[in-house]
Structures are given as C-alpha cells and as structure tokens.
Design goal:
The chain is mainly α. It is 75% helix and 0% strand.
C-alpha cells in the first residue's frame, strides 16, 4: 500500500472493526499524523510569537 492509498482508505476503514490494517497502512498514517501535528505546533508557536502573547 502506498502513502496516498493509506490516507485515502483510512476514513473508510477507521470504523470497520473487522480485520486488521496492513502494517504499511498503519505506519504511513501514523507518519502523516506525526508530521501534521508538528506543522500545527510550529504554526501555533508562530502565531503566538506574532501576536506577542
């Protein structure tokens, strides 16, 4: 499974409790969430610095 396929299938399979996710699907999605959280964290620090809060 490719990175793009893992991101496309997650919304449909996250509520399907039959079976298991492929290892690549799990790790691609986990990596995506990790980098998304880093991006949001960096953005929040930039906004706080910009606003001077």
């Amino acid at each position: 499974m490719t990175f793009k396929e893992a991101l496309k299938t997650f919304p449909y399979k996250c509520t399907d409790f039959k079976g298991r996710a492929a290892r690549s699907e799990y790790w691609y999605f986990s990596t995506f969430i990790y980098f998304l959280s880093l991006l949001l964290l960096a953005t929040s620090f930039a906004v706080i610095k910009f606003l001077g809060a």
